[in-house]
Amino acid sequence: MTDFQPSSVEPHPDEVAAMSYRVWSYKQGEAVSLTIHLGDRLGLYRVLDGIGPVTPADLAERTGLHPRWLLEWCRGQAAAGLLDSVDGEVFELLPPAAAVLAREEASLAFAAGAFGAPPPPEVVDGIADAFETGLGLTYDQLGPACAHRTERMLGPWARLRLVPLIIPALDGVAERLRAGATVVDVGCGAGLALEVMAAAFPESRFHGYDPSHNAIHLARQRMAAAGLHNVALHALGGEDLPAEPTFDFVLTFDCLHDMTHPERVVRAIRRSVRPDGTWLIKDIRSSPSFAENRRNPMLAMLYGFSIQSCLSSAMSHPEGAGLGTLGLDPVTAEALVRAHGFGTFRVHDFEDPANLYYEVRV
């Protein structure tokens, strides 16, 4: 490696100040992220929703939490523009903020579930090591919280739009589900999509495949709590699907880009889907062009997600494909499925700000 000589050109102080502000604003975001996690974890946003202006003492009476800690939290939330306050003594969660921070069951905009606790040191160390070894961490190695956080981050669209909007847009799928179909969710995670579909279509039989034991454990708890008996869960990867045509409907939601060998899973899906079956892919809204992706104001966050989880998972075995969070754009997805025997590829845009949906058939 050649010796590096720093530039002798002195940057303008205003440029340095602007860059310093940008860097410290990311540190502020990190700090605020923790307070959002605490507000969600402690149920503070849900308590604040709809009760109007309150003092920290009022909030302490309602929650049983310590008023001094609540004062600091409320002032921090007001400083971040999440709570409304004029004097730093009285605070209110206004309806737009409630939709994003409190209303998990009813709002497509709910986002507080994405704010988990910081990763433990061993996970950060493992990711740092990956830059040297090339081998990332599997989802299970990322810890039990990873599956839970992923479910809550992706949950609103599965809970509120999958059955009433997305499935009816697929040719003939809703009718087959009502009549009784065999369905598999590959990369099912904690099973929210399975729960929603199994409750809506009791005549159908659902299977969930996921190699993450943490995720399957959460999914089993979910199905038991919901009293659903038409769901079978398998701690297996998509490569392990049946070798013969079995399924009328296949889903892969936000997971193909996480897989070490997505082409193997695509081949397995091609074998296991019935000739008249449908495969629905949901994946991150992206372009093969970095310049196009730069239009997304959340692009840096997506690359951060990739390093923390998606790319890590996709590189967790030798010769992993390494697609990462933004790696399955429509061009790449269509080429992948057509290369393995699928003839129909249709893009659906349901105005999901994070994802596109691909309807695939033989």
Give the helices and strands, then pairings:
Blueprint: H1 13-41, H2 44-48, H3 56-63, H4 67-79, H5 95-101, H6 121-133, H7 144-160, H8 162-166, H9 173-179, E1 182-186, H10 192-200, E2 205-209, H11 213-226, E3 231-234, E4 247-253, H12 262-272, E5 273-284, H13 290-293, H14 299-314, H15 330-338, E6 344-348, E7 355-361
Parallel strand pairs: 1-2, 1-4, 2-3, 4-5
Antiparallel strand pairs: 5-7, 6-7
Helix pairs in contact: 3-4
Second CATH tier, the architecture of the largest domain: 3-Layer(aba) Sandwich
Task: Please report the distance between the alpha carbons of the first and last residues.
Answer: 51 Å
Oligomer: single chain
Low-confidence stretches: none
User: Globular, elongated, flat, extended or rod-shaped: what is the shape?
Assistant: globular
Q: Which strands sit side by side, in order, in the main sheet? A: 3-2-1-4-5-7-6
Please summarize the sheet with the most strands: 7 strands, mixed
CATH C-level category of the largest domain: Alpha Beta
Structural class: alpha/beta
Report what the structure shows:
The structure is a single chain. The protein has helices at 13-41, 44-48, 56-63, 67-79, 95-101, 121-133, 144-160, 162-166, 173-179, 192-200, 213-226, 262-272, 290-293, 299-314, 330-338, and strands at 182-186, 205-209, 231-234, 247-253, 273-284, 344-348, 355-361. With 362 residues, it is α/β, with parallel strands linked by helices. It folds into two domains: 13-103, Arc Repressor Mutant, subunit A (Orthogonal Bundle); 121-361, Vaccinia Virus protein VP39 (Rossmann fold, 3-Layer(aba) Sandwich), CATH 3.40.50.150. Strands 3-2-1-4-5-7-6 form a seven-stranded mixed sheet, with helices on both faces. β1 (182-186), α10 and β2 (205-209) form a beta-alpha-beta unit.
